[in-house]
Design a protein that fits this description.
single chain, about 280 residues, mainly alpha, Leucine-rich Repeat Variant, 11 helices
Length: about 280
């Protein structure tokens, strides 16, 4: 009789545990890690403020490669006291490319830190939420090439357009002419003509042809209106952040890290990619 009672109690405990796990998964919408994995994820996020360059990169890559079980902790990290943690979590979420995080991330697009706002907006655009494109277009005029690169890669991969922009060009007029192409695209896309007109007046630029120079096409050769698929999905063959299929990086390149830190060329001061919102970020 005692054995039967113990078996019944064990079964009830097991059922309660399964019910709790199912409820948590349904509540969060993501697979929950076990207790040991949860501690490891939290520990790695807590280490972000003290890491730079290669160490930071490897930590963030680990988080991005650990699957959706890291997403709840990363979303929580968007509210961390340290802006470097917030921007890093946004970067990882963008690399994971799970569109289910869009609604949660939009709440942080107005973060008090302009640097974090830029990283969040960049991730949202990478995930196909194009209404945050204007902030990235403004980032194309940054004084720092890393910021210009990250903003342009997000815009290009999400729209399939290029406008002949070169983030390494030292010719400010040439860059601004390309930026005007992006601004004209957004003015047409959003119905806001002043976004391009004010820029033209500020720098004395002439209107650009409607067809963008250097327009990119999906790998299947089928151009899409405005460079995007219905419902804001990624164009076929286009990968966020300039990545190759299966998460590979283009030849001779390193995956850019948020906070303006890249392997062997970080600023070490914890300044996120977006700088101060006026185009100032890590060198």
């Amino acid at each position: 009789m005692r054995i039967v009672v113990l078996s019944v109690l064990s079964s009830l405990l097991l059922l309660c545990g399964c019910g709790s796990s199912s409820h948590q998964q349904q509540q969060n919408g993501f697979s929950a890690p076990n207790s040991l994995m949860s501690q490891e994820i939290d520990s790695r996020i807590d280490q972000i403020p003290y890491q730079h360059r290669e160490e930071l990169l490897q930590n963030l890559l680990w988080l991005s490669q650990s699957g959706e079980q890291t997403i709840p902790a990363l979303l929580k990290g968007l509210s961390h006291d340290n802006p470097k943690v917030r921007s890093s979590c946004a970067w990882v979420l963008g690399r994971m490319r799970d569109r289910r995080v869009i609604n949660d991330m939009e709440k942080h697009a107005s973060d008090q830190s302009e640097t974090v706002r830029l990283e969040v907006c960049r991730t949202l655009v990478v995930l196909g939420d194009l209404k945050f494109s204007p902030m990235l277009i403004e980032g194309l005029d940054s004084d720092h090439k890393e910021v210009r690169f990250l903003c342009h890669e997000a815009l290009k991969s999400s729209t399939g357009r290029d406008f002949g922009y070169d983030h390494l060009s030292e010719d400010a007029t040439q860059r601004r002419t390309a930026v005007l192409g992006w601004r004209q695209w957004w003015s047409e896309y959003s119905g806001d003509p002043f976004f391009a007109q004010n820029y033209m007046q500020r720098y004395g630029l002439q209107a650009q042809p409607a067809q963008p120079a250097g327009e990119t096409q999906p790998t299947n050769g089928q151009p899409q209106p405005n460079g995007q698929q219905p419902n804001g999905q990624q164009p076929n063959g286009q990968q966020p952040n300039g990545q190759q299929p299966n998460g590979q990086q283009p030849p001779n390149s390193q995956p850019p890290v948020p906070n303006g830190e890249t392997p062997g060329n970080g600023n070490g001061n914890g300044e996120p990619t977006g700088g101060n919102g006026n185009g100032n970020g890590g060198n």
